[in-house]
Hints:
Layout: H1 6-22, H2 34-42, E1 46-47, E2 53-54, H3 64-90, H4 98-107, H5 113-120, H6 126-146, H7 150-157, H8 176-194, H9 197-204, E3 213-216, E4 224-227, E5 232-236, H10 237-246, H11 253-259, H12 263-272, H13 274-300, H14 303-308, E6 316-317, H15 318-338, H16 347-357, H17 359-373, E7 378-379, H18 381-396, H19 403-446, H20 448-462, H21 466-483, H22 486-499
Parallel strand pairs: 3-5, 6-7
Antiparallel strand pairs: 1-2, 4-5
Amino acid sequence: MVRAPLALVVWLTLAPAVYAGDVQADWRRDGVDDRVKQALTVKGWRLEDDGRALDPKTKSPVTKAVLDKTVLDLRQDARRAALETANKMLASGKPLEKADRDRIQALSEDLPPALVKALLDPKSDLAKAKTLASSELDAVAAYFDGGRSLADRRAAAAPVSAGTPGPRVDLPYFSANEKAAGEKLRASASAVIGRDPFGKTVLSRLGNDLPPIVIEDQNGPVVAQYDFRRRAVVLDRAGVTDSIVGAAPPKDRAALRKSLATKAALLSYLDAHPDAVTAVVKDNDALLVHELTHAWQDLRDPVFREMARGNLPDAQPLEYEEEAYKTKNLYIHSKLKNDPASVKMDGEFSDYLLMNHGRESWKQELFRNLSETSPARALPVQTVHEFQTARAQKARGRAATTAADQQKKALDLLALTRGEKQLAELSTAHAARMKALDGELDTAKAGAYQLLGSYYLVQALATERSADRSAWLDQAERYAKAADDKVLLEKIRKAKEKKE
């Protein structure tokens, strides 16, 4: 038998792998389930109906190898976050309480099955479970450490200054139609929010330069979010469609919704109908104020930029959410005062009411709901700081025998310890910010009952449904009594008499 030359043998051996790496990805085929699809979309990937996966930076289709690596990174990052949470639960050495076990159950998809079984079994040896959790966390950390080059570490170790974007996507748009719709939404948001006195304050914090706005499938209950990786506000396509359809006459809604079934049709409709753009913004202005507050936090603090660079755990700090929700509610209060007809009876308005009825209990419930929705990401800054400290301690204990390893270790420690300091600074700054913000809320609350009484009276007089009219007049009366507003009570009495 004639033996093939060695080079040919090597080529034949490698050829299938090289070819597989060059195959264009098809996300429908390549292991992208609904959960991964949502995670990719949140990070700015575009998953086309024909199976192509478009990179958020290049806007071009990627190969199967690139998509596989991206999905693996996502899964490993989710496992790391879940393991850090599990390790924190085990740190005390005490048996897990029911709330802890419920959280482990929520995290089970991202945890090793053996660890989940041990943590959920009341009879298991928690010391062994703790050892297993620590070992698994070390393995995931090693995966990320091994994937970072010296150049990556140098870039991550360089300090960031206020306003610098870091390694993020320049623009989130994949097409001219998307950009046109985004710019119109951005201009409309500036106009609508800027009509309100407090809205002007929100815009001024960003230098009246709003981040890009994009419309994407969020594949979940989120209607709007600020994506710090792209420095963009993302609106859910289904939510945008609902806003447009809701503003149309009832007889036209079914046909209109059908005509907006594709994203291309939705973008074309927005381009041709400025009134639809305005309807979307007016329907979501309070949500936009919330997300613009996150954009301000990103501009103001280095935390999101450090997360984007991989120097801090990818978390959703609860303190940032507290600030954004309170800011959103101050905006609603300002609208009640200056343009009550523009205030919708929706979930954001209900949140405003709950906050005014008991701010501390409202905050605790807010944090509980956020933590249940995202048990490994929605965390207090103190917890994120503990995770960061643990990462820094691991890095300090890492063996570094060669000069190159020592340099890598030094760069990692530089970035990690700076992150610790930034989180500590955020915690201190947040306390001062909330003291000032709560002072504004206290001042607003002093006049809230009168405003709410007037608001419900206006709603009652405008509705055609007798049941709504009666209920809202009763609400108006309760708030007017709480405000001891005799003039308003007289107006409500006359409205009730007119009804009869």
